[in-house]
């Protein structure tokens, strides 16, 4: 039995891609809440932090908005059609791997930037 290509993307990138496609297809429309992080973590068999990273990607793209204390991420925009589908056939596996690594680095930079902002706020108040 032949297996398909191995998906080497990080789990949070795969989850973000799935949710982006769901938004583009209309499964989740502008104004809808995405499922709670716990539900998504269970669905994908990952830790809550992995789901948080996936939501952060969508937030960075301007597709969802989160609020402290809210039950989930709210869809605020739909992706462009070309961004929502599967990668185009002319993109090589190497390109897809590099792209997923770039997405991972962007997520890490966002988290570091957020931590720096928090540190700046704490030191400014003193």
TrEMBL record:
CDD domains registered for this protein in UniProt: WHTH_GntR
GO terms, biological process: negative regulation of DNA-templated transcription
Entry superkingdom: Bacteria
Pfam families in alphabetical order: GntR
Domain HTH gntR-type: 9-78
Keyword Kinase attached: no
Protein name, entry field: Regulatory protein, gntR family
MF annotations from Gene Ontology: DNA binding; DNA-binding transcription factor activity
Organism lineage string: Bacteria, Bacillati, Actinomycetota, Actinomycetes, Streptosporangiales
Keyword Aminoacyl-tRNA synthetase included in the entry's annotation: no
Sorted UniProt keywords: DNA-binding, Transcription, Transcription regulation
Signal peptide per UniProt: none
């Amino acid at each position: 039995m032949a297996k398909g290509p191995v998906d080497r993307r990080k789990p949070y990138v795969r989850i973000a891609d799935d949710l982006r496609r769901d938004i583009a297809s209309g499964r989740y429309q502008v104004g809808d809440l995405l499922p709670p992080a716990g539900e998504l973590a269970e669905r994908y068999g990952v830790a809550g932090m992995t789901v948080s990273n996936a939501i952060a990607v969508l937030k960075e793209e301007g597709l969802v908005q989160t609020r402290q204390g809210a039950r989930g991420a709210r869809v605020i925009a739909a992706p462009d059609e070309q961004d929502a589908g599967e990668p185009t056939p002319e993109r090589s596996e190497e390109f897809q791997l590099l792209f997923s690594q770039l997405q991972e680095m962007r997520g890490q930079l966002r988290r570091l930037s957020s931590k720096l902002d928090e540190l700046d706020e704490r030191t400014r108040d003193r």
